[in-house]
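Amino acids appear as letters; backbone shape is given numerically. Here is one record.
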Amino acid sequence: MSQAAVCVVVPVYKAAATLDRCVQSILSQQVPGGLQCVLVNDGSPDNSGTLCDAWAARDPRVRVLHQEDLGVSAARNNGMALADSEFLVFLDSDDALRPDALQTALAAQRADPDAFVVWNHTTDAADPAPVTQAGGPLPPAALARLWQDCYLAMPWNKLYRTAFAQALQFNKAFTLGEDLQFVLDYVALLQTQQPQWHFRQLTAPLTFYDCSCGGSLSHRYHTDYCPVWVQHFSKLNAMAEALHAPAEDLRPLHRAELRVYAEGAADILHRDPAAPAARRRKMAEVLREPWLRTLLHTLKAEKSYSPYYLPCLWRSRLLLNALYCSKFHGKSWLFGKLDWAGYYLFLGRRQR
């Protein structure tokens, strides 16, 4: 088979209920230049592997790789190594491409050859929004804003140049946030290999993201949550600064990072498997993290306010836990009161 225009790589694990929907959404795309689909059965204990083989027997565009349970990063790495295409797309086995998604992304790429094409997604399987090329070019400096707007952190809403992607790897050491690491590595590679690159943002939702699966990693507790996000956010901030992200994008980025970290710190008290005293010690250690102190210093210099600023500055487990509980345990009114109380302590000298 000659090189295809696009290859879609799908890691498959316990996907018997959704795999047919996913693969059908791929194979129904009418892609000029041809289409490939690589299904990587990551040691699924259900009949996902059998379903993968059935699709390969039915359609010559489908290739199947069976591997031991090595994790999603290894599945994506091994899948993209098999891709023989100009461009590459990742898709999770519980998600789906909307009709005409690949044609639209590829057309945008052809019209703007230096672009890194990224697109929006929907969580509504019946979303009536049209699939179009609406949107436009954004400079590399928009990276921080794209992270805020949920375009950057995931791997499955982007059109990668296969040769560039195959020069990289998803980091198998991470089970949380590895997608962001890969995207940032890809951006860094574009900086060196394609100096005129820029983002092309498609605002139409081209991917259906199924967030109904309670077993996804985003719902699991990770004992190393805060240390891992220190690594991810350090890399994100360094990249945003290297690309000269404007201050109006960096301020909300830093506030969001503090929120993610602070809520992760508070979550230690509620879901960490250690004994209560050990949980408190672990939370106290997390609040002494040097990266956090640097972030708080940055927020101060930016005159930027976050409800988590003072609890983290004071290393107050009680106050931080009060914010966490009021936000996630149905007492939003209390969160609001604590938020405004903190803001008034600064006498309006900080930007919300």
